[in-house]
Write a structure and sequence with these properties.
315 residues, alpha+beta, Lambda Exonuclease, Chain A, 3-stranded mixed sheet, disordered C terminus, binds iron/sulfur cluster
């Protein structure tokens, strides 16, 4: 049997709402080449997802440009300036192709401009680090029948104390509270899986970016940008990975019986989960026994998120 390839993000969706996960990863559809596929995504992505993707692309561009220079020594100011220029060009490029999102992208441009300057000049900022891996895919095989693919945003090593840190960038309206950081499992899973693969990893860090830009006052970098180190105990890492493996097995069971998947999955069905759910209209129509085939065809397309079985790249 082919291994189940299930990421942290897929587990996260399953835990939020089994039915939403089914729509995104299990509902039969046809892809753009006319081939059978499973899982849907909205044709129009939300502003939040669009901003997050655009922000991540800019940071990926920035750190990929810095990475080879940072291994050799502290990059020069010219190299930092080039990296910033390339990164901001991804945002202006997005403006050209998405004029309807101009205001949001202008705001993102302001935020990223401030971000690059702030972390260049901070005493523990980007001059102090070697950037080892940017959006590099890793894959842990568990018990021979599960693959856990993951792609950390950044892995960096402190130039002076040698500590290796896994970083996740987050674009948020409100920065996480300490308790929100304390409960989230993503980085604990990444650190545990990297260690299982034989990599030496010391710490993890949330790189928090507040995307709110006010028209009435300048962007306040000191208040809006934070890098928060995580206190990852051995127990937290073990528990986070055990829970990932347990949920993956539940998902793999559904995937092995697609004919009963749609009937068996439950709805979370509460305002917290549902008000921002891309599948709300479809879920309500299904609940009322209505035909959703037209909606599925015109409002959604085959899900493009996932990890390729053969080529092992995120698509
Ligand atoms: S609308 Fe609510 S119950 Fe339905 S799939 Fe979305 S989150 Fe789940």
């Amino acid at each position: 049997m082919a291994p189940s390839i299930i990421s942290h993000s897929e587990v996260d969706q399953f835990l939020a709402c089994e039915r939403r996960h089914y729509y995104a990863f299990g509902k039969p559809t046809i892809d753009e080449d006319g081939n059978p596929a499973t899982g849907l995504e909205p044709k129009n992505v939300s502003d939040g997802l669009f901003r997050g993707n655009a922000g991540h692309l800019a940071l990926e561009t920035y750190y990929k440009h810095l990475a080879p220079h940072s291994i050799k020594g502290v990059p020069s100011d010219e190299v930092f300036a080039e990296a910033k220029k390339l990164a901001l060009a991804t945002v202006t490029g997005a403006m050209a192709t998405n004029p309807e999102r101009m205001d949001m992208l202008l705001g993102l441009h302001v935020v990223l401009n401030a971000y690059f300057d702030y972390w260049l000049n901070d005493s523990n900022g980007d001059r102090n680090w070697q950037f080892l891996a940017v959006e590099t895919e890793f894959r842990e095989v568990i018990d021979g029948d599960i693959e856990f693919p993951f792609k950390p945003d950044l892995i960096k090593r402190h130039r002076y104390n040698g500590r290796v840190v896994v970083v996740d960038h987050k674009f948020l309206a409100n920065l996480y509270t300490p308790q929100e950081i304390a409960i989230q499992p993503q980085l604990a899973k990444y650190v545990g899986a990297l260690r299982n693969l034989g990599y030496e990893v010391d710490d993890a860090e949330y790189d928090l970016v507040c995307h709110r830009v006010l028209k009435t006052k300048p962007y306040d970098s000191a208040q809006s940008l934070r890098r928060i180190p995580l206190k990852l105990t051995k127990k937290r890492i073990e528990t986070s990975l055990e829970e990932q493996h347990s949920v993956v097995r539940s998902i793999a069971l559904f995937k092995s019986e697609p004919e009963i998947w749609a009937q068996e999955v439950r709805r979370a069905a509460n305002s917290y989960n549902c008000k921002h759910c891309s599948f709300l209209n479809m879920c309500v129509a299904d609940l009322n026994g209505e035909d959703t085939s037209v909606m599925a065809r015109y409002e959604f397309r085959a899900n493009t998120y996932g990890y390729d079985k053969k080529n092992e790249v995120e698509v």
